[in-house]
Amino acid sequence: MSDKWLVGVDLGGTTTKIAFVSFYGEIVHKWEIPTDTSENGKNIIVDIAKSIDHHLDELGETKAKLKGVGMGAPGPVDMDNGIIYEAVNLGWEKNTPLKDLLEVETGLPCVIDNDANCAALGEMWKGAGNGAKDIVAVTLGTGVGGGVITNGDIVHGSKGAAGEIGHITVMPEGGFQCNCGKTGCLETVASATGVVRLALQALEESSEDSVLRSGLQTEGVLSAKEIFDAAREGDTLAVSIVDKLAFYLGLAIANLGNALNPDRIVLGGGVSKAGEVLLSPVDKYFNSFAFPTVASSTAISIAKLGNDAGVIGGAWLVKNKLD
Fold it and tell me: 81 and 182, same structural domain?
């Protein structure tokens, strides 16, 4: 069995990442394909199955080489039945039987989980988890996702929605509107779009000189990277913006830490590429809000796997969830 490959799939609204992964978690071959959301996403699963077949042919292998397919999908998932409850960005209706559809098209056993959960599992197995079995992973991208792992396995909750870290309320009064319908969610201030929102608010409320102000006047837009780069260079306003983000993020993960006391809290996604300029103030606020035992026993680190986390997590599902 250990000579078989595991197929990891990270299904996204724009692209789908696919990899053949060894039984020990090493990527053998990886690629990505566009996610065709036309016609209510009816071609998505067929495209994935055809692509797997094509790359097997290229490598001179047959389907007998594959143990199964593990997929991370963008939305709450019923793991027992392989149903994705909702995937608006893919054009799918509610309660899509994703596992059954994927098994029919690939001819392989399949297992499905939420994409952020898969990224968390990938980091636990081969990334920043470093062998720990109790981990909280926070993905800071266009939105904020997350996965909670206890005793080496994902916590799903009663409806597959455990780990919705981005929707922890951090601004109970006067918060920004979130796509989920609430206001004041962590996602509205700690995502890539959230930090830009904080920057625009700071520029409006202050007359302080800043490279961000001149950049906005010249280009008409700001990016999260520009804000972190400016903070790294010591721009006072940028530093204050990052500090505000870190306050909200530190508060949220401290409360998670107090509830779960994980070995590690792993920050991933595009925003985490800011590195130390983000990690240092987040760590400061985490330590100020966390219960002392939690603060001393839970380490915060930046994710290591980047875009490979999801496919490695999908492969972990195949190895550990399929008989």
Answer: no
CA-wise closest residue to 249 among 269, 223, 229, 221 = 269
| Per-residue three-class SS string for 78-122 | ECCCCEECCEHHHCECCCECHHHHHHHHHCCCEEEEEHHHHHHHH
Over residues 266-314, the pLDDT tens digits come to 999 889 999 999 999 999 999 999 999 999 999 999 999 998 999 999 9
Query: Are 143 and 274 in the same domain?
Result: yes
Q: Are residues 57 and 197 in the same domain?
A: no
Counting the structural domains of the chain, the total is 2
Q: Which residues of 71-108 are buried (b: 16+ CB within 10 A; e: fewer)?
A: bbbbbbbbbeebbbbebeebbbeeebebbebbbebbeb
Quick check: pTM over 0.85?
yes
Rounded to whole angstroms, the Cα distance separating 306 from 303 reads 7
Instruction: Say if residue 270 is in the same domain as residue 163.
Output: yes
Residue 181 buriedness (CB in 10 A; 0-12 / 13-18 / 19+): exposed
